[in-house]
Every structure is written in C-alpha cells, then in structure tokens.
Amino acid sequence: MTGAPPEDGAGATVLLVDDNPTNRYVLGTYLRRAGHEVVEAEDGGSALELLRRSPALPELAVIDVRLPDMTGFEVCESVKADPRTARLPVIHVSASAISVTDRAQGLNRGADAYLTEPVASNELLATVAAVLRYARARQRAETLADRLSQLNSVTLDFYHADDVADLAARAASGARRMFSTDALVVIRTAEDGLVQMIGTQDGTAPAVAAERFAREVMRLQSRGDAGLRLEMVPAGRLAGTDPLTGGARALAVASARVKGTGSTAGVVLPQDALGDDDHEVLTQLAHACALSLEALRSYREEHALALTLQRTFLPASLPATPLAELAVRYLPASQTAEIGGDFYEALPVDGGLLLAVGDVAGHSLDAAVVMGEIRHALRAYALEGHDPATVLSHLDRLLRQVDSPAGATLCVALVEESGRAVQVANAGHLPLAVRHPGEKAYFVTDHGPMLGLGLSHPPAVRVPVRPGTQLVMVTDGLLERRGGDLDEAMQRMLRVLSEAPQDAEEVCASLLACFPPDGQDDVALMAARLL
After folding, report:
1. CA separation, residue 17 to residues 91, 438, 491, 516 (Å)
2. What's the CA gap between 447 and 428, in Å, rounded?
3. Reduced to 3 states, what is the DSSP secondary structure of residue 191?
4. 104 burial via Cβ count (<10 Å: 0-12, 13-18, 19+)
5. Which of 172, 181, 518, 521 has fewest C-beta within 10 Å?
6. 3-state SS string for 429-460
7. Are strands 184-188 and 352-360 parallel, antiparallel or unpaired?
8. What is the overall mean pLDDT for the chain?
C-alpha cells in the first residue's frame, strides 16, 4: 500500500514526453514555475522504460501525440495496460493532431485530457491541476477503502489472539500492514495494571526506555474523560524514550479505553504516515484493540470461574484404600469458558470399592448441574448398598423425574472386597479397560443404554481379577478427535496400556503422552492397580 496521498494543491512529479527540445523546454518551464518537478523523455520507448525502472512513479504524464517511434496514443495505451502504471493520469498535447476526431481518439484510448498547441501556460496549469485534483481524490478514496478493508481484516484477526501479548502483536502487525510503516502498540489490562508494548521495527528498545515510553502513551490517554483519543506528539518531545523513531519524527498516538474498565490500548505511528482521512481509521484500530483486550480479560475471568466451579463438583481427594492404588487426571477444555460435564468418583462402600467415570452431554451450566446431581446421587445409591446395575437404573429414573435437559453416559466398576472380581455396569460410556499382570489389555465391551432414556439396564458383568490387575476408565475427550477414527484410537489405547508401567500414576502419564488433549473437550481419566 502507498503512503498518504499528497494534498490537492501540492506540486507533483510530471513525466514530460516530447521529441521537440523547444516544446519540452517551454512546457517544462511552465510546470517547474508552478512548483512541479519535471522528468523528461524524448520518445515513447524511453518514456516507458523510465516508468518500468523508476521506483517511484510520477503523478502525471504529459505526452505529445506525434513521437518518432510510436504515437502518444500507443504510449498511453501501454501505460494504462500495465497494472503498475494503470492509474497514472495522461494529458495529450499536439500541434498537428487537433481535429475533433484526433481529440476523441486520444480520450477514447485512455487519455484524461487533450490540449492543442500552442497552449497557454494558464490553460496547461489549470488542466494539470484539475487532472491531479481528480487523481488524488480517487487515490484518497481508494486508499481509505483499502484501509477500511484492512481494518476489518485486522479486527477479525484479534479474535484469534491467545493472550494479551499475542493481541498486541497482532495489532502492531495489522497497523504496519494498513499504513505501510513501523508501528507500536501499548496495552494495559484492567486486571493487573499490566503495561505491554509490542513494536514492528527492527531491533529492540532498551527495556527501561520502552517501559517509560509505554507509560507515557498511557498517560496521554488518561488526560480527559474521552474513551477515544488521538494526539499528535511533536518531534523530540519524547526523545530518548521513543523506540519508534528515536524522537526524530512527530508521532500520532491513538488510544482507546473501554468505559468502566481499565482496559486501554494505544497505537503509535509516525505522523507523516497518515493522510487526512486516516485519523479516524487509526482511532478505530485502537478502539477495536481495546475492546478485544477487554473481551480477552473477561474470557480469562470466565474461564477461571468455570474451572473453580468445575472442581467443586469433583472429589477433593482420592480415598486411601487397601483394595487399590488409584490415580486420576482431570483436564478441562482450554478452548471454552463454559463448565463441562465430565466427572469421576472413587468411593469405599460396604461391598468393596466403587469406581466411576461419567460424561454429561454439553458444555453449559445445565450440564454442570446435571453432573452434580448424578455424582451426588451415585454416592447416595452406592452407600445404600446397591449393586452397579441397580445404581444405573436409579440414576436413569432420577434424570427422567427431574426432567433433565441433558443425557449422560456412565461406567461403574465395583471392586469386590475379596479382590477377586470386579462388577462392571456401563450406561453407554466408553468401556472399562482391564490388564492382568503379564497379559495384554482388553475392553469389557458389555454395555446398556445411556442414562435418561427410560430403557432397562442389563445386569453387571463380573470380571475375575487378581493382585496387580489394572483398571482404566476415560471420557471421550481423551480419544475423540475431529476427523479421527474412535475405534482406531481405542485400539491404540489398548496397545499403550499393554506396554505401560504397573504404577497407576505412570499409566495416566503414558496415556496423556500418547493422546495429548486438543483443548476442545474435557478429559477425565482414572487408573487403578488392584492390591
């Protein structure tokens, strides 16, 4: 993207193409006296070559129609056909091709104006001024439209920020793309008063100077009650603390504060990078950054609150029992601030040790409430002495009676007090994995319907076990991946368990190493080694 368009009355660089030295001198003198810079070419070929090689294009071309190597019409068509020079305005001049047909042909083939020689100086300069005025207005409109489009793209990019520093980096990079210059972004969060500064320029400013500059930008914003502020800081005012220009150039500082919070964002650019139409765009960029900063802060608070609430529904600790060595892992989804429905339970009962892992559908407060109801009812029914299948039947009836908005899956395993068998009842959950010492792991695949459907649940399956047998229960967040095959993941889980150490904690670590959570769903994992 080019820099800020020049003012309408400012002088321009003009390409003058004419094979007659006298004409070039006369026209060039008119233009130079009016404040324009003139670049000359003697024929069409040299003019086109000059345009191809020039790093900075002229703003206007004045081209004679009768050239020795090609017509001015052909030069104009070549200029307009090249995407790099297509916007270059062209004024044709001619002393011989002056008929209506000639003038119409020139305009039809791309010229923006047509003058006949001899041309008076005031007519030439007025035509040049009119063409430049139109071209510059068009350039300003196109630049503004482009920057507004970039602003929309940059604002959408803010939603992908993972943290405060990432947001600042995205804002600085977006400002550089929009205004084609180095930029600084300074942000302060309401939560802890943190001030961070991210820049796009090469090199890194000394930490102390950068911190002073960042706090100075925040101080500019704090003056007055306006939520949005744009201030022009003269060159040298921040000398010694300005990491962007070293104090050599004036700065434009746009800042925004979210009303009622301390979330503030400031975007700093060299002032000369802005055109008249860019001030509002820059302040809107700062405003969008501040709003995204507040949304990010609110999300962090929500996520922390959800985590705290989630953990209140889970057991505070695992029971110490002579029947088994227990280990558990619970990993909440990192990509949602909502509370999940995964849970686990380990409870000594009269008949032995009850182990359970379940999952309530959804991520919401409703799912959390249902999860809490199921877990507490599970404890009550188990302490009453019911077997696993009866516990599932009672839970199914409970969900239907309270008109639960969410269904649930649950796997219950009762380690008998004798230590010789495990009773397994499964309501639509992933199966219990069993590994006997020295053997390969396998799943207990018998199961019934999920809870809440009002369907009957089959009797529990009795699985013989012996000391050292490992039992593992998981929720689908460990194994399921978008686009992945669940059956294949379950077989891979068995292979991992077959080669895992005996220690229950190490079993959990091995599974999480093989199936790293993707953050999209909660993970509950319980491992037991029978003693």
Report:
1. 10, 92, 78, 68
2. 6
3. coil
4. exposed
5. 518
6. CCCEEEECCCCCCEEECCCECCECCCCCCCCC
7. unpaired
8. 84
- 3 state SS of 1: coil
Phi and psi for 202 in degrees, rounded to 5?
-70, 145
What angle in degrees, to the nearest 10, is found between the helix axes of 121-158 and 21-33?
Answer: 60
Number of H helices, E strands in the chain: 13, 20
Q: Is 15 helix (H, G, I), strand (E, B) or coil?
A: strand
CA 380 – CA 509 distance, rounded (Å):
31
Output the CA–CA distances (angstroms, integers) from residue 403 to 92, 225, 379, 454, in the order listed. Answer: 83, 51, 20, 12
Per-residue pLDDT band at 2 (split at 50, 70, 90): very low
Is residue 414 within a helix (H) or strand (E), and if so which, with residue range?
A: strand 408-416
Show the tokens assigned to 474. 């998981």
In angstroms, the CA 196 to CA 299 distance is 19
The CA–CA distances, whole Å, from 321 to 37, 325, 425, 462, 503 equal 92, 8, 22, 21, 16
Give percent of the chain above pLDDT 70: 85
Residue 303 — very low, low, confident or very high, per pLDDT cuts 50/70/90?
low
Segments in 278-427 forming alpha helices (H): 279-312, 365-383, 388-401
Q: What is the pLDDT of residues 59-81, one digit of tens each?
A: 999 999 999 999 999 999 999 99
Pairing of strands 13-17, 60-64: parallel
pLDDT in tens, 162-171: 778 888 888 8
Residue 359: closest CA among 474, 259, 264: 474
Q: Are 59 and 14 in contact (CB under 8 A)?
A: yes
For residue 56, report the phi and psi dihedrals to the nearest 5 degrees: -120, 120
- Specify the DSSP class assigned to residue 5: P
DSSP codes, 207-270 = HHHHHHHHHHHHHHHHSSS-SEEEEEEPTTTTTTT-TTTTTSS-EEEEEEE-TTS--EEEEEEE
Which pair of tokens denotes residue 141?
A: 């409109």
Specify the length of the chain in residues.
531
Q: Cβ-count burial of 390 within 10 angstroms (0-12 exposed, 13-18 middle, 19+ buried)?
A: middle
Q: Please list the residues that pair with 324 across neighbouring strands.
A: 321, 530
* Residue 333 contacts residue 520 (beta carbons within 8 Å): yes
Q: Say yes or no to pLDDT of 118 above 50.
A: yes
356 with 380: CB under 8 angstroms? no
- Min mean pLDDT across 148-152, 231-235, 420-424 is at 231-235
CA dihedral 96, 30, 104, 44 (to 10 degrees): 70
- Give whole-number Cα distances, 124 to 60, 97, 211, in Å: 13, 17, 55
Residue 96's SS3 state is: coil
Report CA Rg, the chain.
37
Q: Which residues contact 95 (CB under 8 A, 6 or more apart)?
A: 66, 116, 117, 118
Burial category of 211 from C-beta neighbours within 10 Å (exposed 0-12, middle 13-18, buried 19 and up): middle
Rounded-to-integer distance, Cα 460 and Cα 355, Å = 14
- Tally of CB atoms within 10 A around 460: 22
Alpha carbon 309 to its chain centroid, in Å, reads 28
**What's the whole-model pTM score?**
0.56
